[in-house]
Amino acid sequence: MTTLANKFLINCPLGAQVSVDLIIGQVSPGPTNTREHSVLSFTVFHYNPPNHESIAWSVYRSSNWTAGGGGMNPFTYDITDLNIGNVGWSSNEVTIRVTGDYYVYVSGGAQPNNQLGLTVQRNSNSLFGVYRTATTNGHESLGYGAVVRLQSGERLKVIAEPNTEGFGTQERHTSFFGFLIV
Fold it and tell me: 0.85 cut: is pTM over it?
């Protein structure tokens, strides 16, 4: 059994319809062969924080990438999907304007038999990341998110670790997003 997960942040206007389409493969029942244990989920929530302003960013990479022996610092994204609350996104870094708790997420697409290594840094210090050597069977998507206390003026960026590579597509396999919770 292979489990894949992907998360991304999109802005949906009132009345918009959102769906998930299975493009290739199949979804199988879980270990007990019942629908209740199937490994498919789809989560949507309304983001409208009370008592403070909305702050969110969402960026993606739409092409494959290779980080040589020196890595890629900062990692570059070519699609900016969201910039709510004038986040301060420039030169592939986010500058935090409002102190608070943020949900921060990074994902990457790993190519067969290759290493993927993306690290989120706060003020050039490692915060967390995603690291994996993909199997020979195909592409893999992986991601990680965490709730982090960030101070006004702190900078976040993603770096690609040395000698790693990955893929990016319009399906948002390689992404970096975050939003202010409280």
Answer: no
List, for residues 136-159, the tens digit of each pLDDT value.
Answer: 676 777 888 899 999 999 999 999
Q: What is the 3-state secondary structure (H, E, C) of the chain?
A: CCCCCCCCCCCCCCCCCCCCCCCCCCCCCCCCCCHHHCCCCCCCCCCCCCCCCCCEEEEEECCCEEECCCCECCCCCCEEEEEECCCCEECCEEECCCCEEEEEEEEEEECCCCEEEEEEEECCEEEEEEEEECCCCCCEEEEEEEEEEECCCCEEEEEECCCEEEECCCCCCEEEEEEECC
Query: Does residue 65 belong to any structural domain of this protein?
Result: yes
42 domain-assigned:
no
Q: What is the CATH number of the domain that holds 58?
A: 2.60.120.40
